[in-house]
Amino acid sequence: MREDGGMKHIESAMESLGKRHKEHMKVYGEGNEARMTGAHETASYDKFTWGVADRGTSVRVNRECADAGKGYFEDRRPASNADPYQITGMVVETLCGKAEGADMFAKATESAQEELEMIIPVAKP
At the top level of its lineage, which domain of life is listed (predicted)? Predict the structure, then answer.
């Protein structure tokens, strides 16, 4: 993507990301349904979109990257409470294929949140 002619790879990535949008959204954090309304420079929760220098899309390509015909893209869908490792795993799995014996979506959706008790010792004078 960052080499000459990389824009065609970015476009191919957008097609792949669009096909698995619903799966990605299930891993991209809690509360996205309320946050991603399609208004106020947010994308719609239900629909995958991408564009150049468009803050209202699911994925944004920087204008300089589009002008240069190579570069990177910004996935604007993850919530701040999402697990960055699961997000990265989903993107890599979508763009590069699943590793043998691994399924990031299944692993991410099967794991339940655990409440861990943290004991903090307090020193008393």
Answer: Eukaryota
